[in-house]
Specification:
The structure is a single chain. The chain is α+β, with helices and mostly antiparallel strands. The chain has helices at residues 111-127, 139-145, 160-176, 184-188, 202-205; strands at 8-11, 16-22, 31-38, 48-49, 54-61, 64-68, 71-75, 81-84, 90-94, 101-108, 154-155. It has one domain (8-205): Jelly Rolls, CATH 2.60.120.10. Strands 1-2-3-10-5-8 form a six-stranded antiparallel β-sheet, covered by helices on one side. Strands 7-6-9 form a three-stranded antiparallel β-sheet, with no helix packed on it. A two-stranded antiparallel ribbon has the order 4-11. The protein is globular, with a radius of gyration of 16 Å. It binds fe (ii) ion. The site of fe (ii) ion has 4 residues, from loops. Residues 36-98 form the Cupin type-2 domain. It holds the Pfam family Cupin_2. This is Cupin.
Length: 211
């Protein structure tokens, strides 16, 4: 199923809502731009990296704490932006106790694969209560899903070579138990709603190639 502008994807576990601004389909699968709304206390699921993609976060309103390479960067003014290079471990959190945070997230390279893994498979699992408290699926699910998407997202811990061995050993058991790398139901699950895209302040739009 193709991802379209204005579609809304929820991750209830992470308390985040994604509205699609530029889907991968508009850039030959190369880039995606997402409007990300984060409730107070919300966060992205687990420390992770994107081996071949760079990711940029630009604040529209609220406060966002981005942990990258062992340091916290706080985005607190409209138009403040941080670039995560390929392979750098990172995680982000709402840094506001009371207000919603709204930021733009742009991923360059592997965007079509990111849509499939994150917006459909991982968000689908979170919607069905099949992740832990920080939005990461259980070990058997990871064993079948993560090796297939190792070019898109890797969780930071344990080190990837250790994860590979572990997942390789567990994947046959997981498959026997019915776990699938991509659940057809999640691939086809229609977004609950579509939303009007907010007009962006020029200092935010300036960081992104919006089309
Ligand atoms: Fe990321």
């Amino acid at each position: 199923m193709v991802v379209n502008p204005g579609e809304v994807y929820y991750n209830p576990r992470c308390r985040e809502k994604v509205v699609i601004r530029t889907p991968a389909a508009h850039t030959n699968g190369e880039r995606i731009i997402m409007d990300v709304y984060v409730d107070p206390g919300g966060f992205v699921a687990g420390y992770h990296s994107h081996p071949f993609s760079e990711e940029r976060f630009t604040l529209v309103r609220g406060r966002l704490r981005v942990h990258i390479a062992g340091e916290d960067v706080i985005l607190k003014e409209t138009g403040q932006s941080v670039l995560i290079p390929p392979g750098k471990v990172h995680r982000w959190y709402s840094d506001s106790a009371d207000d919603e945070t709204f930021m733009l997230c742009e991923l360059r390279n592997k965007a079509d694969r990111f849509e499939k893994l994150v917006l459909r498979q991982l968000f689908g699992l979170a919607q069905d209560g099949k992740t832990n408290d920080v939005g990461v699926p259980g070990l058997l699910q990871r064993a079948v899903t993560l090796p297939e998407f190792a070019d898109v997202v890797r969780y930071a811990s344990p080190p990837w070579p250790v994860q590979r061995v572990l997942y390789g050993a567990l994947a046959p058991i997981a498959r026997m138990l019915g776990y699938q790398s991509c659940n057809p139901e999640y691939m086809e699950r229609a977004p609950e709603e579509t939303a009007e895209l907010e007009e962006l302040p020029p200092e935010v739009a300036a960081h992104h190639l919006i089309n």
